[in-house]
Amino acid sequence: MSEYLLEMQGIVKAFSGVKALDGIDLVVRAGECVGLCGENGAGKSTLMKVLSAVYPHGTWEGRILWDGEPLCARDIRETEAAGIVIIHQELMLVPHLSVAENIFLGNEITGPGGLLNYAAMYQRAAELMAELKMPEVNVALPVSQYGGGHQQLIEIAKALNKKARLLILDEPTSSLTKAETAILLDIILALKKKGVACVMISHKLDEIAAVCDTISVIRDGTHVATRPMGELSVDQIITLMVGREIKNLYPREEHAIGEVIFEARNITCHDIDNPARKKVDNISFQLRRGEILGVAGLVGAGRTELAMAIFGCYPGRYEATVLLDGRVLQIDSPQAAVQAGVCLVPEDRKRHGIVPLLGVGYNITLSVLQRFSKYGVIDPSAEMQTIEQMIQRMHIKTATPLLAIQGLSGGNQQKAVLAKMLLPQPRVLILDEPTRGVDVGAKYEIYKLMMALVKDGMSIIMISSELPEVLGVSDRVLVIGEGQLRGDFVNAGLTQETVMAAAIGKAEALAA
Q1: Within 13 Å, how many C-alpha atoms sit on residue 68's CB side?
Q2: What does the alpha-carbon distance between residue 502 and residue 494 come to, in Å, rounded to a whole number?
């Protein structure tokens, strides 16, 4: 009997003749957690889609052994029947179905005559929620009633219900709070003790270090190294991933900060479901030329709603007065905002940043189509020239500019959204969670780009849930808590403790 539960040998996968995987090997023992690391576009998710038969046997080269026997799965049902369950970065839940119905989707408990046994499903679903330390979840309610963090853990419950022997987690904590992340990491440790193997893809290397026994690194579709976690530091993992040493993740550079050019006055956003409640409560602030203004706060504080109101796209009732160069702007739509010189890279790029089936290049030029139009007809050569320039400038990895953008990794999609919002040459650029789901190397590139933009006089508002990121790149930090402005700090000796104290209402707001 093999010492390995899983062996992937010499896996090759190509798209349109371009190799996404070129001879990858991966081994996993029962009860072992392997961290699969690499930059965006390195091939991590592709490798896991091969394993889980999203790409069925015959569409790739190489060999997969499961319990020492060849695995030639033709679809996900076959891999799940074997005990291999993948939880994708994009959740696969049906919003209008209940928590229990989602957990048992495709594996329903039935009684006489094939009728669904809801009592048994509700009981088992409640047991799973309790096991995942979420006993408060009402399993009869629709999944849409719960936030992203709860939904991620519901996906875990769905996998556990399928009696997974190998659990593949693709960026499992990208939408979780710190408390939810801690619960998930504890669950992974508990699963390992029960003999369940895990493959974890994550850009959060501190989480990888906390739960993984072995690290396997791939770069540009090739295997770089497989080593015990105990032999590697986080910095060494980064070096293996990007092929170079990054000594300072936050490359702060001296840049001139000028006069106030932008003002937001009395921004107020009413809750869509309960208009009497304010998600953003009368917030005002100023932004200077060449300044990076960080916006910090706990999840649900109102940061994204603030950005959406400024950009003219908050879906509920809101009030906002926005000034650029002392002149009041009439912003009632994203198009009006872009034309006025204000651009937004949204938090949820899948829903608000891209058109999934449209080509990478055409996604990039959506914001400036009029630039290539004459008498209503697009000049394709001029458009393609701009597309190629932006792909090169942003280091976007794509086989062709015509590839549907949904085929790119999350980090490369993010770079394309950034490129789209840079083309209008905005005066003010709002970045809402710009590095979420982005690897260390791509993060560094985004920070360098931000520094170059402010050196050229652009002003940036950056919303981030990662306090080290906020403190690492911002010149000034706004702190929002429960929809209110609770702090306005110059980032000189500013600490995470001070920011958190302000966020939870334990410190007086300071004037910049």
Answers
A1: 3
A2: 12
Residues 39 and 442 sit within 8 Å (Cβ to Cβ)? yes
Q: Which residues of 229-261 are buried (b: 16+ CB within 10 A; e: fewer)?
A: beebeeeebbbbbbeeeeeeeeeeeebeeeeeb
The enclosing H or E element of 343 equals: strand 342-345
Average pLDDT on 299-324 reads 92
Kindly report the CATH number that applies to the domain delimited by 6-242. 3.40.50.300
CA–CA distance from 41 to each of 145, 404, 411, 413 (Å)? 33, 15, 8, 10
- How far from the centroid of its chain's Cα atoms is residue 6's Cα? 28
- Which two three-digit tokens encode residue 109? 């408990």
CA atoms of 253 and 400, how far apart (whole Å): 34
Tens of pLDDT along 231-279? 988 888 888 887 766 667 788 888 999 999 999 999 999 988 888 889 9
- DSSP code string of 457-498: T-EEEEE-S-HHHHHHH-SEEEEEETTEEEEEEESSS--HHH
CATH code, 251-317+426-512: 3.40.50.300
Answer whether residue 17 shows pLDDT above 80: no
What are the sequence ranges of the domains in the chain?
6-242, 251-317+426-512
Cite the beta strand spans of 229-337 per DSSP E.
Answer: 260-270, 278-288, 292-296, 318-324, 327-329
Q: How does pLDDT run across 441-467, given as a tens digit for each residue?
A: 788 889 999 999 999 999 999 999 888
